[in-house]
Amino acid sequence: MSVFTYNGSSFIMDGKEYTVISGAMHYFRIPREYWYDRLLKLKECGFNTVETYTCWNLHEPQEGIFDFSGMLDLEAYIDTAAQLGLNVILRPGPYICAEWEFGGLPAWLLNYKDMDIRCNDAVFISKVERYYKQLLSRVVPHLCTNGGNIIMMQIENEYGSYGNDHEYMQKIADIYIENGVDCQLYTSDGACFSMLSGGTLPQYPCVANFGSRPDENFRILGEFRPGQPKMCGEYWCGWFDHWYEEHHVRDPKELAGLFRDMIDAGASLNFYMFHGGTNFGFMNGANYYDVYEPTITSYDYNALLSEAGDLTPAYFEVRIIIEKLNGEPLPPLTVKNSEKAAYGKIKLSSRCDIFSALNKISAPVHTAAPKFTEDIGQYYGYTVYSTVLEGPADVQKLNFDAVHDRAIVYLNGKYMGCFERSRRSDNIEIGLAKGEKAQLDILCENMGRVNYGPKIMDRKGLRGIRFGLQYHFGWDMYPLPMKDLSALEFEEKEGEETVASFFRGVLNIDDEPRDTFIRLDGYHKGIVLVNGFNLGRYYNDAGPQKTLYCPAPMLKKGENEIIVFETDSVQDVTVEFTDTPELG
């Protein structure tokens, strides 16, 4: 059993001063088959610890139903780290930010309209307690106090950026303790007095999160909480991207130099991120300050390992500094980058339009007024709102009280225009003659819930659909979570497509599959599923990301089914499998 604690300005491991050199890697953003490879790369870079959040929304996707299997097998991830001699810092939230959908909170919480999150609200606490009972029963056997490798666990996450309810913070700590957690607890916040005051508890050490100016930030941390170790809980060595932005990059030598400065200052630190991975499926988050800004699918983060797990120049720069700190070379590298495959181009020549698909893969929920999707149990993906208009009706502009987040409008199956939250609002006018009827369909996409700040209670869908000032009532809502598309009926069809549609093709692989990247230059916006696995969103019109990472474990020898759901239009149904990523 290892004993990890602190004494004055030093962390102590088994009675000796200890410097934590940690890197963040989230198990839920990495294919399980690659956990060992990524953790070995961390180890061979000279790190002694891996840090990860846990994701409540994936572990409890439906209220009371839990999943700790496959890519969510947290115990297996911790065990893999232990096999390599790595310690673990665990950050169970319940809120994690992480540029992850709803900051890791499950969307079903939004059904409790009178509940306040991230405070000492009795209903919220009861939901957290149930989740933590499941989670912590799997975690406690792996604590260093029980002979395992978890040395630290974080209480909440950057709470001072959100609130100042210390009763709530204490309640989270109490739930840990009641469930058998007895390792070193801590809090982390931005390096300013208001955030540190709001997010800390006096009996636990606190760490500061920042990406530059370590002297200044450690000075603030020391003034706020003297007599405890210096630690940067998140050294932001890169940054994440939103659609419509450029890809963030950072000079490797500058990044490594700041790492050296922190070590020279006697500090411990955690690189955020060492390896970012991918926001597979619909799990990207969003920011919302002045405008709504959803995060892209890649979580490359300009980290020390690329999205595909490749060693970057920053990896080698940091490794050199660790060798200098140790005063001797690290063992030679045994790790290497995965082989990439350029499988070439294939045509997705089979297609099924959204109107043919609806009754195959969904069932309507009738409502008087259009509702947010959470109200009908639809939490991720798309929803179609359908209604019949009857004349006579004067020509009026189509309006919405809320579009969360993107809506494509069709009249009698014909594309009419698009509304995108904070970005676009087409002028659509509709009028009907006496006795005339028209079918109105609106395809709404949830582009990711806000994961940070005061607008985090981000409900999805459409509300208040009006013509002029008059609300229209009587709607069928079709949920499209895109989990099972086996009932779709495809047909061969040539030419451009201007209606949202599914496109299907087959990629044949003769040998064992390799990592690859998918380009969709003839497409505009949508998602890609490979053998039923949702790789995530593409948005060629917005950038910066132009390829989707397709890990080898998602492929198989022989025939691989590729399905693209395109929401806008397609000029060329060809997709290309390339060996080179393009993130902007």
Task: Characterise the protein shown here.
With 584 residues, the chain is an alpha+beta fold. Helices cover 18% and strands 32% of the residues. The strands form 7 sheets. An 8-stranded parallel beta barrel has the order 4-5-6-7-8-9-10-11, surrounded by 5 helices. Strands 16-26-17-23-19-20-21 form a 7-stranded antiparallel beta sheet, with no helix packed on it. The chain has a 6-stranded antiparallel beta sheet with strand order 27-15-28-33-30-31. A hairpin with a 3-residue loop joins strand 20 (414-420) and strand 21 (424-425). The longest helix is centred in the N-terminal third of the chain and has 18 residues, at 122-139. The mean pLDDT is 97.
